[in-house]
Q: What sequence folds into this?
C-alpha cells in the first residue's frame, strides 16, 4: 500500500465516517472508527466513537477471553450491565472490562443519545462469549455460532487418516 493510500494517523471525530448498524427497534446505533491507521500498520489497539440512541443497546451482552475493553462516556446517560449488576453511567465515567472478566453491555433507557469511546485491543485469536444466547465468537475462525458438546474422540474414524496417507505415499500416489 502506497503512503498516500494509508489511513490517516490523525482523525477528527467530526469528519470521520459514520457507520450505522441497527436491527429492529432495540438493537444498534452508530459508530466512527477513530484509529483506522492502527491495524494496517501493525497496531492492535483501537478506538471507536459510539452513539446509542434512546431505547437501544449497541451490542449483545458479551465477555472477552483475550481482549481488555474500556468505555469512556462523553455525553448522555446509560446503564451498564456488568455480570449480574446494573449501574447508571454518565459523562466522565470510565468503565474497565478486563479480559476474562464479567460479561458487559451498555444500554440507553434514557431520552438523549448515549455517546462514548470504546477502546480495546484487536487479538486475532479472540474468543467472545454471549451468556444470554450461548453463542461464541471465534475470531481466528471468522465464526459466530453455538458449540455442541462432544466427547474428545467422538466422530473420529475407526481408521485414522494418517495411515491412509502413509499407504498412499508408499504406493507413490501422494
A:
Amino acid at each position: 500500500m502506497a503512503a498516500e493510500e494509508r489511513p490517516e494517523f490523525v482523525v477528527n471525530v467530526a469528519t470521520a465516517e459514520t457507520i450505522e448498524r441497527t436491527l429492529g427497534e432495540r438493537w444498534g446505533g452508530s459508530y466512527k472508527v477513530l484509529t483506522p491507521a492502527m491495524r494496517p500498520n501493525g497496531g492492535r489497539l483501537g478506538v471507536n466513537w459510539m452513539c446509542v440512541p434512546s431505547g437501544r443497546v449497541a451490542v449483545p451482552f458479551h465477555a472477552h477471553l483475550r481482549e481488555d475493553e474500556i468505555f469512556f462516556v462523553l455525553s448522555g446517560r446509560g446503564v451498564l450491565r456488568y455480570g449480574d449488576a446494573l449501574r447508571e453511567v454518565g459523562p466522565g465515567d470510565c468503565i474497565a472490562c478486563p479480559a476474562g472478566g464479567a460479561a458487559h453491555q451498555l444500554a440507553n433507557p434514557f431520552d438523549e443519545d448515549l455517546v462514548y469511546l470504546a477502546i480495546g485491543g484487536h487479538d486475532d485469536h479472540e474468543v467472545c462469549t454471549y451468556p444470554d444466547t450461548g453463542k461464541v465468537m471465534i475470531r481466528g475462525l471468522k465464526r459466530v455460532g453455538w458449540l455442541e458438546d462432544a466427547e474428545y474422540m467422538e466422530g473420529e474414524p475407526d481408521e485414522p487418516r494418517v495411515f491412509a496417507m502413509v499407504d498412499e505415499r508408499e504406493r507413490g500416489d501422494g
Notes: The chain has a mean pLDDT of 93. Residues 3-124 form a domain with the Jelly Rolls fold (CATH 2.60.120.10). The longest strand covers residues 45-52. The chain is about 5% helix and 40% strand.
